[in-house]
Design brief:
The protein has about 300 residues and is α/β, with parallel strands linked by helices. It contains 14 helices and ten strands.
């Protein structure tokens, strides 16, 4: 191994699920694996796909549905953008919450109102469409507005520009602390939902597998460290340092959700086969394409299987 750490660039959505990566940086696990890891947070899935396709990043922390969408030619950035996504590890079950303004107390109150989304044809949007359908509303009963990633959507909700949006932690707890309501949670309607995954470009995987394997080795150590109860206080400190918008009183519910097998990090970065099938079913229903049934075509878990030392 060279004495000079190899740069490795990661792009991720803002959110508490990044904590294992942050911990691996802070604890030196990536450095010990011979890497200099930098993380950039994206403003939207479209920006993430475009910049990944342009070769700016080696590792992509994104939603499983984004991988499926681009593989099927249904990506939100359009058919000319091909980020070559392939899943190399799981990350989160991920709980999506429909957060709404305080005056909204039922799904019927959403009729004729505007809701903020990252993009109207992504997996998280499909979760929202399913929530609406289960409560007697269609997409035509509300107006969907593309705003961007969770921080941008949360700001638009706070500013009164829209009455609702989907959030992940820590933004769900932050919103509740600010007096906003949660109408529904994905964990209440799906037994399993593959939210976050770790991906790369197929060309990067073919040409440079060793740095990716080193990344997974460091990530797994960071994940194990975060999930160890003995490290809870320090983990909270790292999370707050990386996400200063988390108020002290919100840290406990954020960490509880993050460490829950129903709504948070996946032990061993394992994939969730049933959760992936849920994602494929939603895209088959709302994506306007063919029926999708085989999650394996979007995966290459060979590095994960050989990552532990």
């Amino acid at each position: 191994m060279s004495d000079t750490p190899q740069p490795l660039r990661v792009i991720a959505f803002p959110g508490a699920p990044n904590l294992p990566t942050f911990a691996a940086i802070e604890k030196g696990y990536f450095a010990q694996a011979g890497l200099d890891v930098t993380v950039e947070l994206t403003a939207s899935s479209i920006e993430q796909a475009k910049r990944t396709a342009a070769g700016e990043f080696d590792v992509v922390c994104t939603a499983f549905d984004n991988v499926v969408a681009y593989a099927e030619g249904q990506g939100a950035a359009g058919p000319d953008v091909d980020p070559e996504y392939v899943v190399i590890a799981g990350a989160t079950q991920l709980e999506l919450s429909l957060v709404v303004a305080s005056e909204i107390t039922s799904f019927e109150d959403l009729r004729g109102k505007t809701l903020a989304l990252d993009a109207v044809a992504t997996g998280f949007a499909f979760v929202l469409y399913e929530m609406l359908a289960r409560h007697g509303l269609s997409r035509d009963d509300v107006e969907m507005v593309e705003v961007g990633a969770t921080p941008q959507r949360w700001q638009s909700l706070k500013a009164g520009e829209h009455v609702g949006t989907l959030t992940i932690e820590p933004f769900t707890s932050i919103a509740q602390r600010a007096g906003f309501n949660v109408l529904a949670r994905s964990s209440d309607i799906f037994d399993s939902y593959q939210g976050g995954i770790i991906a790369t470009r197929r060309s990067v995987l073919a040409q440079s597998p060793k740095p990716l394997q080193a990344f997974l080795r460091g990530y797994l150590r960071g994940l194990e460290w975060v999930q160890n109860p003995a490290n809870r206080d320090e983990a909270e400190t790292i999370l707050q340092a990386r996400m200063p918008q988390i108020l002290p009183q919100a840290v406990t519910p954020v960490m509880k959700s993050l460490l829950s097998p129903r709504s948070g990090l996946t032990p061993g970065a394992a994939i969730l086969p049933e959760g992936m099938r849920t994602v494929l079913k939603l895209r088959s229903t709302y994506g306007g394409g063919a029926r999708l049934e085989n999650p394996k075509r979007y995966l290459d878990l060979s590095l994960l299987e050989s990552a532990p030392e």
